[in-house]
Write a structure and sequence with these properties.
Order of helices and strands: HHEEHEEEEEEEEEHEHEHEEH
Bound molecules: 2,5-anhydro-1,6-di-O-phosphono-D-glucitol, manganese (II) ion
Helix content: 25-40%
Number of domains: 2
Strand content: 15-25%
CATH architecture of the largest domain: 2-Layer Sandwich
Distance between the termini: 51 Å
CATH superfamily of the largest domain: Fructose-1,6-Bisphosphatase, subunit A, domain 1
Structural class: alpha+beta
Low-confidence stretches: none
Number of helices: 7
Mean pLDDT: 96
CATH topology of the largest domain: Fructose-1,6-Bisphosphatase, Chain A, domain 1
CATH class of the largest domain: Alpha Beta
């Protein structure tokens, strides 16, 4: 079979569909290269002295792992000098990161969760990187945080990498979803799945069931009905998976369907769930919609939400369309 590299895929997309401007192509290649570097560090594990805690906390009060910080630095350094970005934002940085004055500035803004699934780093379970690309408002010198406050529907590209048994990169530029596998010997990304599609129906769900007692009624009802199996109202048996790395859970759903949920709950009523809108929920929702699935916060389409702060949290329901529609309906009842 003829191998198509990420570079070749991007060039052909640019030429045939005119869907990827040259600067965006550069951006995606640079992010992919950074993910390759992160993948290498992840793969070294204890040998690379990359495991364990860094002894610091991020703005959200979460303990930072060494790999959280390292991955953040890798992405920042890779993306600073190319001239394709106006600014960056990350889970691991309180405010936005300006491009230093010594470099030219471009028209895009990049947001990322440099290392998703941090609790899995030290136990050798799949982790990943999530990224989202927005356009900077025109004629802007240095963007402000306010310039990042665009709904997810404005994303021009989004993707994630999974550092697992295989390292893969899943990408959308608004023209379907494609998956690339890292050829570790050659050091290149090879197109391995074209136009990924999420089945509309599923028998698999993902939620952290240890929080059951804190859930609100719509989620309790939805999960109870699935648990009731073939003799319950759904008339079929469901299976459950929870990896605690959103990238790995979403990657399974892209491959064989399912619904992923991280609802808001009564633990901390002021917190709208755990996951962050700008660099977790939005890029994943863009990818899921592009693969024929759906994504909501339980009430409305995720990509329509107008953000108000960089690190805001949001309830997440995404995956197989009919299931996401059902649980969203339960929230309206
Ligand atoms: P991060 O490591 O970037 O902070 O994100 C972890 C997220 C997500 O990947 C996962 O689905 C979820 O946290 C797991 O949360 P629980 O530990 O509450 O199950
Ligand atoms: Mn994350
Ligand atoms: Mn993270």
């Amino acid at each position: 079979m003829k191998r198509v590299s990420l570079t070749q895929y991007l060039v052909e997309e640019q030429r045939l569909n005119n869907s990827i401007p040259a600067e965006l192509r550069l951006l995606i290649e640079v992010v992919a290269r950074a993910c390759k570097t992160i993948s290498h560090a992840v793969g070294k594990g204890a040998l690379g002295e990359v495991l364990g805690s860094a002894g610091s906390e991020n703005v959200q009060g979460e303990v930072q792992k060494k790999l959280d910080i390292l991955s953040n630095e890798i992405l920042l350094e890779a993306n600073e000098w190319g001239g394709h970005l106006a600014a960056m934002a990350s889970e691991e940085m309180e405010t936005i990161h300006q491009i230093p004055n010594r470099y030219p500035k471009g028209e895009y803004m990049l947001l990322f969760d440099p290392l998703d699934g941090s609790s899995n780093i030290d136990v050798n379970v799949s982790i990943g990187t999530i990224f989202s690309v927005l356009k900077a408002p025109e004629g802007m010198g240095s963007p402000t945080e306010q310039d990042f406050m665009q709904p997810g529907s404005k994303q021009v590209a989004a993707g994630y990498a999974v550092y697992g048994p295989q390292t893969v990169l899943v990408l959308t530029t608004g023209n379907g979803v494609n998956c690339f596998t890292l050829d570790r010997e050659m050091g290149s990304w090879v197109l391995t799945q074209r136009d990924m599609q999420i089945p509309a129906d599923t028998k698999e769900f993902a939620i952290n069931a240890s929080n059951t007692r804190h859930w609100y009624p719509p989620v309790t009802r939805y999960v109870e009905e699935m648990l009731a199996g073939s003799t319950g109202p759904r008339g079929k048996d469901f299976n459950m998976r929870w990896i605690a790395s959103m990238v790995a859970d979403v990657h399974r759903i892209l491959n064989r369907g399912g619904i992923f949920m991280y609802p808001a709950d009564a633990r901390e009523p002021d917190k709208a769930g755990k996951l962050r809108l700008m660099y977790e929920a939005n890029p994943m929702s863009f990818i899921v919609e592009q693969a024929g699935g759906a994504a909501t916060d339980g009430k409305q389409r995720m990509l329509d939400i107008q953000p108000s702060t960089l690190h805001q949290r949001v309830p997440v329901f995404l995956g197989s369309r009919n299931e996401v529609e059902r649980v969203t309906q339960y929230h309206q009842a």
